[in-house]
Structures are given as C-alpha cells and as structure tokens.
Amino acid sequence: MKKRLITIATVLGFGGLLAGCQSQITTTAKTYQQTGIVATIKGHAAGKTIRYRIGNGKPHTASVRNHSFVVTVAPTLHEQTVTLLSSHAPRHQVTVKTATPLGSYSQFAQRYNQIITMAHLSPKQQRQLQAATAIKKNPQAAQSNPQLLQQAQQAQNILAQARQKTRAYQLPAYRQGVHPLVRTKAYTLRGNMQDNQLMGVTMIIPLHSLKDKQAARQFGTAFMALSQACGANGKQVLRAFKRATNHQKTQQTTLKTITNHGVHYQVAFSPNGLYVYVTK
After folding, report:
1. Are strands 39-44 and 26-27 parallel, antiparallel or unpaired?
2. Looking at CB atoms within 10 Å, which of 214, 236, 255, 269 has the fewest?
3. Which pTM does this prediction carry?
4. How far is CA 216 from CA 22, 168, 185, 213, 249, in A?
5. Helix %, strand %, coil % for the chain, to 5?
C-alpha cells in the first residue's frame, strides 16, 4: 500500500511538472532587432491566443497555432518592452531594440516624388524645366523679357501635368506606423514611419513584373527613386540587384545584403515575387 502511494505521488508530481512547463510562455530570444521593416517575436504558449502589450499601449491579440505564435513589432527610435500575456501562464517580457531611420519622411517623400515626376518627362520637357529654374533665379531679366516669362509659365504647366499623371505613383502625406505607401500592378511600397522619421521600406515585386517589360520599367524607376531618395546611388544599386538576381540559385530564398552609402537592401524570394527590405 505504501509503495502504491509513492507511485501515485510520483506520477502526480511529474504530471504537475509537465503541466507547469506547458503553461509557460517562451520566446526564441529575450531581445529582438529589426528584420526587414519589423521585429518578429516568435514563441510557444498554451491556449488559442495570447495578448501582448507594447510599452504602456493597448493590448493586442495574436493567434496560437500548434502552441506557436508570431508577434510583429514596428521598431522605433526608442527601445520597446513587449509584455506577453496569457490566462494559462505568467507574463513574459522581451525587448525590441531601436532602429536607425533612413531619414526624415517629409524630405524622403519630396525627393522621391520629384524623381518620379521627372522620370515621366521627355528630355525636351526636362530641358524646359531647367531653363525655367534658371529664369526663377534671375527674375529681373525675366520681367524685361516677356518671352522668358512665357517659357517659365509653360514649364510650370508641364510640371503640373506630370504631377497629375504620376499621382498614383507618388508617396502620400506622413502617417504614423506601418502602412502601404504606393500600390500599383508593378510593385507595392510599404513603410514604417515613426516620429516623422522613415524607419524602413519594403518593396514587393510580383513575379509578372519581372517578365513584363512595361512593369519592369515601372519597378526599375521606382527602385531608382527609392534608392536616390535614401541617399544611395540608384544606378549602382540597380546594377548590383540585377547581378544578384541573375546569379540566383534555384533553391535560394535570400540574396547577400546589398549595401550602398550606408543603405542596406535585403532581398527575399517567395513563390509570388520578390521582397526588398530597405533599412539603415
């Protein structure tokens, strides 16, 4: 009888230990950094959902599938504490490190939109705009020459029309958080904006864009504009990107990071297309 009691107690003890292990929230790390334009927290927990809170913010919910969960957090200019909560386990905290911004979003958007607009002008129209800029710098000469004033006005009209035609390709006004910036058939741009700073950009290129000449041109123009607006050399980056994708192996899902003027380009492949993550 005594031996049977010991056996039951032993089984109950191990059962309690296993239950204790299953009711813990665990994560793959205690500290996470930006991967792409977000930090990805992975872990295990019991139940169907967990709750998480970033700093003192509002609670959010993440699904738990096969005891695994994924939580994405947008990096900011400040270190963040993420608290993971479950009714089945004690809370668990991890840290998301700060990220280096690409720069001011307003300045980035202004440069990007200007490049996109100019790319849709013919060489003749670009020369007219350059002439109009020179006229603006010498207004006294323009006032004494009606022909120059007319040329300047024509150039401004050309610019206004180009902006109207490229509106779908232009970056929008600032919006806090991770949001789509541009959506076209040829590519999609998503950005992480925090405290008026652009923390990172993802460019998503469907496979058909690489096979269609017109879509490829649109993607190439946007890729160049994105690089130039970040302070990189657009032509150099595009050449490096083409070399890397042309030499991609069949089973390869990522490429070696391209770095130009301190801007990093991480390229990942999926069955549906390419993902280019642009960060500093």
Report:
1. antiparallel
2. 214
3. 0.83
4. 50, 17, 11, 5, 21
5. 40, 30, 25
